[in-house]
Design goal:
This protein is of the alpha/beta class. Helices cover 49% and strands 13% of the residues. The chain is built from eight helices and seven strands, in the order E-H-E-H-E-H-E-H-E-H-E-H-H-H-E. It has helices at residues 15-26, 39-53, 67-81, 104-132, 153-173, 191-204, 208-217, 228-239; strands spanning 6-9, 30-34, 57-60, 86-89, 135-140, 178-185, 250-253. A seven-stranded parallel beta sheet has the order 3-2-1-4-5-6-7, sandwiched between helices. Strand 1, helix 1 and strand 2 form a beta-alpha-beta unit. The radius of gyration is 18 Å and the shape is globular.
């Protein structure tokens, strides 16, 4: 069913985005890869995917803070691959600090990349999905789209916004063969999180494993982080025909974080 569809995954050069790219490519889905790489590095990565999975690929390193650049990016992708059937808004950044000293520039960047960019990509991709009477939009939100944590004002605001945006677009697209959902992971084992664990281990003079366990269980009942591949597999399910009745949902993958 999905072979030959075209997917755009923002932030797909590492972590959840990269894992999702591999999982979708295994199904024969053509890919538009995006991330913080040089054009040369990105082209090489796209070529690797193309050869390994026998799919069409494209890479772009557009700055998602720039709405006009996003429009050019989407237009170029559609001109090259014909359409965008699946949109995975995954790109995101983080900064933690008390709100009284939170830098305005950091706030603006987090809102732009984690929230506004999703609005712009959805707005650009929906007309093609409507024309084809089929589409899948999956916004990678966070458990912080459902609950808050200290020192994460911008991140929580953006992720709560993503959940709201998801619901509105789902309502507006319900009769057009398009589903729109938000995935809300808790702790995911990515390089960014492991850097945080390493700092905690050093600060508290404990082992990496001890710091990781404390970090995770402070928030969620399940003492293990999710693997990026698990998120990618869930995204694949949301693309499938089996999930055609799931739309407008904010779906936790959070180890019972929000069950408390």
């Amino acid at each position: 069913m999905l072979k030959g569809k075209v997917a755009l995954i923002t932030g797909s050069t590492s972590g959840i985005g990269l894992a999702t790219a591999h999982i979708l490519a295994e199904q024969g889905i053509d890919l538009i890869l995006h991330g913080l790489m040089s054009e040369q590095e990105g082209a090489a990565m796209a070529e690797e995917f193309s050869v390994k999975y026998q799919i069409n690929t494209l890479f772009d390193n557009t700055d998602l803070r720039d709405a006009d650049a996003i429009t050019r990016f989407i237009n170029k992708a559609i001109a090259s691959l014909g359409t965008i059937d699946i949109l995975v808004n995954n790109a995101g950044i983080q900064h933690t600090e008390n709100i009284t000293t939170f830098p305005a520039g950091k706030w603006n960047d987090i809102i732009a990349i984690n929230l506004s960019a999703a609005f712009h990509t959805i707005q650009q991709c929906l007309p093609g999905m409507q024309k084809n009477n089929w589409g899948r939009v999956i916004n990678v939100a966070s458990v912080h789209g459902l609950v808050a944590s200290l020192q994460k004002s911008a991140y929580c605001a953006a992720k709560h916004g993503i959940v709201g945006l998801t619901k509105v677009v789902a309502l507006e697209s319900a009769e057009q063969g398009i589903t729109v959902n938000a995935v809300c992971p808790g702790w995911v084992d990515t390089p960014l999180v492991n850097d945080q664990v390493a700092m905690l281990a050093e600060k508290n003079e404990v082992s990496f494993a001890q710091a990781k366990h404390k970090l995770v269980t402070n928030k969620q009942a399940l003492p293990d982080m999710a693997e990026p591949k698990q998120i990618g597999e869930f995204i694949l399910f949301l693309c499938s025909d089996s999930a055609r009745s799931i739309t407008g949902a904010a779906l936790p993958m959070d180890g019972a974080w929000t069950a408390q």
